[in-house]
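Quarterly update, task 2.4: magnesium ion-bound model.
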Amino acid sequence: MMFMPKKTTISLIKCDVGSLAGHYVAPKPLSNVAQKNLKKATEEGLINSYQVFNVGDDLQLLMIHERGESNSEIHKLAWDTFKEASNKALELKLYGAGQDLLKTAFSGNIRGMGPGVAEMEIEERGSDPIVALAADKTSAGAFNFPLFRIFADPMSTAGLVIDPNMTGGFKFEVLDTVENRSIVLKCPEEMYELLALIGTVQRYMISRVWRARDDLICATGSITRLSKIAGKYIGKDDPVMVVRAQHGLPALGEILVPFMHSYLVEGWMRGSHWGPIMPVGLKDAKCTVFDGPPRIVALGFQIASGKIASDDDGKPMIADLFDDPAFDLARHEALENASMLRRMGEFEPARLGPEEMEYTTLRQILKKLKKRFKSG
Ligand code: F6R
Ligand code: MG
Ligand code: MG
């Protein structure tokens, strides 16, 4: 009999279904809906284990199962859960209830319907450490910089220099969100070409990374352009990402190195400004000043026999990785940079350039002024 390696799927699906006191935080009654539904789905055997959390106003469903990527039952579970949580948000008159649910009826795949999806089917290694990253008040281009540093920058990831399993480099799938096409580039050979694209974070976004020598999947991110789906501005496409670590892949610590410093991402207030990313623990995953600064959390766990490895009480063991003084410097830098940018108010480059502002409510203001311009 042929040996069939066990395949496990990690699905991280998120949605803004409404929040407390503005776009601040998805409160407990909403995560309770998700807890209830995912618990039931586990008892019924649809999924094997799960973790519900939130980053700012986004409700996050981390689900581990054996049904592969883009599975309609898994996506329906997420869709129904977001619908039910939206109804709860409506009932409580929370702010922006159902914000990201752009379609009314589920059509088999939740992609393109509003929620963000990062999914990865893996053949379980002897031990498979995973990091799930989720950010609020920014978009998928925010992951270009850390993904480049993790999988292509030898000054950041020592394994690219020291570990023979990694010296062959990594392949990056980049989506062109304007032309709706994609390209795969291999590093180190095509590093400069990769940078030529992904430096334009508002257009080119890294969607997948594989180890070059054996095409082992290493990272996958959610890429959505809500404004394109809806045809109008409805907030930013707060992104999620799943990354595999260790044993011939970047170590956990190498995945975290890019977050020792803050860097600028697009999003923040009204999805219209450059803002400094702030790595935070789950307790600080809520957006305040100028609706930010954009926050990112990182959860570490182990995949073991189709589940998240759990403790003696059967509770999934989740490491809240940015809940650590090692990221105090980045948080401090984020605040310093936030105050510098906010001193500039609505002047570029604190505000996004005109192309991106086209997708915001500024368009209506400019339209109003149009008639009043005199030529010459
Ligand atoms: C950004 C975001 C918020 C809102 C802002 C205005 O992604 O969600 O910054 O854009 O709070 O929100 P409304 O127009 O709902 O009052
Ligand atoms: Mg919101
Ligand atoms: Mg959000």
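Highlight for this quarter: The two ends are 81 Å apart (CA to CA).
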